[in-house]
Amino acid sequence: MSGSTHSRGSSGGAVVAIAALIAGIVAVGIAAAVFALLIGASSPSAGGSCGSPSAVTLGPPGTSQLVGATEYGGPGDPSSGVVGASGANLLSHPDSYAELGGDTFQTATSIGGLPYLTPLRITWGRRSTIAYKRDFGLGGSPVGGLPRAIDLWWLLAGRLGIPYDSGRWSGPVRIERLTPPGAAAIVGNADGPEAPDETAALDPAGCAPTSLTGVPTTPGERARLLPDGLAAAPSGAPRAVAEIIAAGNQIAGKPYAYGAAHGLALSAIAPAYDCSSSVEHLLYGAKLVPVTDAAASSALESFGAAGPGRWVTLYASASHVFMYVAGLRWDTHNAAGPGDGSTGIGWHPLVRNADGFVARHPVGL
Question: Which of 91, 119, 129, 240 could form a disulfide with 286 if both were Cys (CB 3.0 to 4.6 A apart)?
């Protein structure tokens, strides 16, 4: 079955939830029977005794609702594939969700039939993030008495702190329509007001996404170095890229000191940094490392996944680490010759030689 409907289908845990009903049935050749079981499981009883509607109707922008959610994809759920219904590679777009309810964009209406790329703020526990509709799926029976309305791509679920359960996790999440939709609602710029920043209320311990208040943006998919030494986040990049840039702007221009900032929580701003502590501060901006991370540059040789990433690439060795974020280099010194900017910690416009370094990247970026 194609990635647009996932064999386990953006139903994610939905198929698992009714595994007892279809145990021993071979999917090939009886897809219609399986589909009927799924639809039956997702429909309310004739008497409506569960009290759970089969669909959710989101209110106006700024209002939210608690719904049932599942996860899909990842190494434990290979039948879902990595390609969304839109044809997008979901590994390259980890901020993706699927609206449930049917086997086409038109029939997947559990949240009202949202248009492709509709952004939603999704909150689980004390964490919140922005995600985009790139997929759809069949759905299934209610989750804890709530209508099963949304499937979270496994990398998105991970960003929310949901433990990976091989496509079997289910639970409640809160979803909210943004105003206005799109990047202007996520990263402050001149084109529109910023979406409300809920991070302080959601996670006073510093586990929520970095606030993007005041972070400048630039069109396209490449970051831009500004005259004041800060960076503008590309409006066409995932939120995580903007979060990394926001964290870099917090400490750009800080002095370099070997061993500085190690042992300090990454949510704090240190008086000085070295190469690895500064890179880790940026990674923590997108919650890609724990707040207590204090790895040396050599440990970052095994960070994330091997090779360059689409948006973010670390180059690590036993003695140094630097990184590129949307085409702009983050480094602790001028290493690419004249015109490369400040000799201190910060953003640099030129590409430096990476011989002797190991390329790594965050999964999905």
Answer: 240
Domain ranges of the chain: 13-177, 209-361
Which of 56, 17, 21, 38 shows the shortest CA–CA distance to 137? 38
Nearest to 362 by CA among 263, 252, 228, 237: 237
The H-or-E segment that residue 128 falls in is: strand 127-137
209-361, which class in CATH? alpha beta
Strands 170-177 and 217-218: unpaired
d(CA 324, CA 242): 13
SS3 at position 271: coil
Predicted model pTM:
0.47
Options 2.60.120.200, 3.90.1300.10, 2.40.40.10, 2.60.40.1840; CATH for 13-177 is 2.40.40.10
Q: What own/partner pairs with CB < 8 Å and gap ≥ 24 does 265-269 have? A: 265/206, 265/291, 265/292, 266/290, 266/291, 266/292, 266/293, 267/206, 267/291
Which long-range contacts link 217-226 to residues 24+ away (Cβ below 8 Å)? 217/183, 217/187, 217/188, 217/189, 217/242, 221/326, 222/326, 222/327, 222/328, 223/325, 223/326, 223/327, 223/328, 223/347, 224/328, 225/328, 225/341, 225/347, 225/348, 225/349
> HSE (CB half, 13 Å, CA atoms) of 184?
8
pLDDT in tens, the chain (365 residues): 223 334 334 444 333 333 333 333 333 333 333 333 332 333 332 222 223 345 676 766 667 889 999 999 998 898 888 998 878 889 988 999 999 988 888 888 899 888 888 889 999 887 888 899 999 988 888 888 888 999 999 999 998 889 888 888 999 999 998 754 333 333 332 222 333 333 233 232 333 345 566 688 999 999 999 988 999 999 999 999 999 999 999 999 999 988 889 888 888 888 899 999 999 999 999 988 888 888 889 989 999 999 999 999 999 999 999 999 999 999 998 888 888 876 679 999 999 999 999 999 998 89
